[in-house]
Amino acid sequence: MTRRQALKRTALVTAVCATGAALHSTRAQSTAGTVVGAGATGPFTLPPLPYAFDALEPHIDAVTMQIHHDKHHAAYVANLNKAVADLPELGRRPVEELLRDLSAVPEKIRAAVRNQGGGHYNHTLFWQVMKKNGGGQPSGELLKGVEKRFGSFASFKDELAKAAVGQFGSGWAWLVVGADKQLGIEATPNQDSPISQNKLPLLGVDVWEHAYYLKYQNRRPDYVAAFFQVIDWDFVGERYSKALG
Predict the structure, then answer these.
(1) pTM of the entire structure?
(2) Phi and psi (nearest 5°) for 86?
(3) 20/193 Cα distance (integer angstroms)
(4) Backbone angle region of 7, left / alpha / beta, with phi > 0 → left and psi within -120 to 50 → alpha
């Protein structure tokens, strides 16, 4: 990185941080039950990160993780709470249950639940599929399933990367299990989730620009390649085993 690029990045980070309250510096400050930086409470809560903000360095930088979790995810939680504020019975249901049957959500808040609830659900999974010193490849049942469906882990990795890089605009790329117990890869726009199509997401790659732009700018392929270095395949494998069971 040149000195000029470093100065530009520093200025961008400073501008982002200046738009809200001071960011928290440790994982302990992002506690469950608190909508960090959003100033709203309700039945849905912001889960803490399962690791420190800098745990995924150098692949995903600490500043991005801090803003992504404490600002973006918190905003989805706050807005979801606002959407269901007049319908407390919805707040007593898990967010995945609401997303599985959006047609049962009153029309006046259906779009908000789809967008804000999807953002909450998708990000909650996203934090869990990554870990410090992750990467490598899956093992056990998941590796067998991947090889059966895609031919090899390398082929799977290539297909998921293509789905992530090729997603137009903001959205996600997913490894899913369908109702037929078969693995698949798909991309969704915005905060749409496969769970609304009766598919269980095992792994999601967030390709909204806020997930990578501070470090990678417009180099989405580089970010996707880095994401593979932090995947928690043990968690993904456990999720797959439960889906089969």
Answers:
(1) 0.84
(2) -90, 0
(3) 28
(4) alpha
